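Severity: low
Component: inverse-folding endpoint
Summary: output formatting inconsistent between runs
Steps to reproduce: submit the following structure tokens with default settings.
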């Protein structure tokens, strides 16, 4: 069984076990997507309408912008892994509630421990504050955080604004592109080689 197949099996098991009430209103779960050996895992907030319909994360306008930003640093979607704090679309695209994040948390931790990324990038305040509740996105964006967090395989985190927030705000778009440009340097700074046993 390949690592991609094992990861899919992990998702299917957690979908069966997950007690998140969003399951009742969503069309389907939206599993994380991408390279199971990725050095970077991006964590967003929750699936939107298109993601709920297709079962794939970040495929709308925000996903296109993310692909543009990846291209700007010489990377492709296939090089990274992307997932969300909650795996089911909240009704009317509302923000996920705290208990919903908690119910989906074991699934997210299992994903991260399977992939063992060198760097976790938070897309937006919801994913950031789930792990680093004391931070404020307007202060923390674009700054590497080195922190030991229980149950997580990495100690390096980078908060960024969510691509969706930047779609209609030119200033935020420029800031996000500027922050994104730091990623290759950050990967070089991180001392832990990704050649660690998986």
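Observed output (run 2 of 3):
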């Amino acid at each position: 069984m390949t690592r991609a197949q094992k990861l899919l099996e992990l998702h299917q098991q957690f979908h069966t076990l997950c007690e998140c009430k969003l399951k009742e209103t969503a069309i389907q779960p939206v599993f994380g997507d991408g390279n199971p050996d990725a050095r970077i895992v991006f964590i967003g907030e929750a699936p939107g309408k298109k993601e709920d319909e297709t079962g794939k994360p970040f495929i709308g306008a925000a996903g296109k912008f993310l692909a543009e930003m990846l291209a700007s640093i010489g990377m492709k979607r296939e090089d990274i892994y992307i997932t969300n704090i909650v795996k089911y679309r909240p009704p009317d695209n509302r923000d996920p509630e705290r208990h919903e994040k908690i119910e989906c948390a074991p699934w997210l931790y299992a994903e991260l421990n399977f992939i063992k990324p060198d760097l976790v990038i938070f897309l937006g305040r919801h994913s950031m504050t789930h792990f680093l509740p004391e931070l404020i996105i307007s202060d923390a964006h674009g700054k590497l955080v080195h922190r030991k967090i229980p149950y997580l395989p990495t100690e390096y985190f980078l908060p960024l604004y969510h691509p969706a927030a930047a779609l209609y705000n030119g200033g935020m778009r420029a800031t996000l592109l500027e922050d994104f440009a730091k990623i290759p340097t950050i990967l070089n700074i991180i001392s832990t080689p990704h050649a660690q046993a998986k």
